[in-house]
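Hi F.,

I've been meaning to write this up properly since the lab meeting, where we talked about keeping a consistent format for the predictions we share between groups. The idea is simple: the sequence comes first, exactly as it goes in, then the structure tokens exactly as they come out, then a line or two of notes. No screenshots and no reformatting. I'm using this chain as the first example so we have something concrete to point to.
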Amino acid sequence: ERLLDIAVLVALFVLLLPFVPIPGWAKSSVLIGGSGMLLLLGVLTVIAMQRARAAALARRWTRHVPQHWQQRFSALASPAVDGLAALGAPKVLVQALTWSVAAWLAGGLVMWATLVAFGLPHSFTIAMLLLVMSAVAVALPSSPGFVGVYHVVVIESLVFVADVSHSAAASYAVTTHILLFAPPVFFGVGYLWREPGTWARLLSLRRSSRRMNRDESVFEEAVLAGESSSAD
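Output, unedited:
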């Protein structure tokens, strides 16, 4: 899902290039990072469409790896490959891309309406550029809620593109951050509250995850100890 979103964002960014002045650092950052993501998406698509061959190659590459590491790799890789099934189904892939485009255009409408509300230059291309730049910036791991990272990118992009003051751009960034991120949080908490037993299941999954990590650590220590004893 994240890779499809990045692919759509890169496509939107390329479409915006002829219409909006974009800083050189932004062009290089988005195009280089986006190209890497698109390449990864292409590789994953091939894996999804050639699953048996990919599994055979993985077994061949890991045949010299200790058995317990092979089992762990298989346990991690199998669910990941299962999640790529949609990439191997053209109809599902087209539907996913269509919904992704629709979602980003809806986000662009929010950015545009906020520009209008603040009395700032409000072409839709500027709004989409701000959305693309901020979305690419927060795609990388950062602070909780993307506080700081989102605001810096939106402020600097808006000042460069629309030549507005930093104070106006800062107010705009704070407002759009609330508009884009607060509703999903509130709706998510609301749905979790309405679903019976959801919190209990989440807590149970968290405890199970901790227990599995602890068991894996103990197992690895035992294996390493056994290998060390064999070497002695």
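Notes:
Residues 198-231 form the longest helix (34 residues).
The CA atoms of residues 35 and 163 lie 29 Å apart.

If this format works for you, I'll send the rest the same way.

G.
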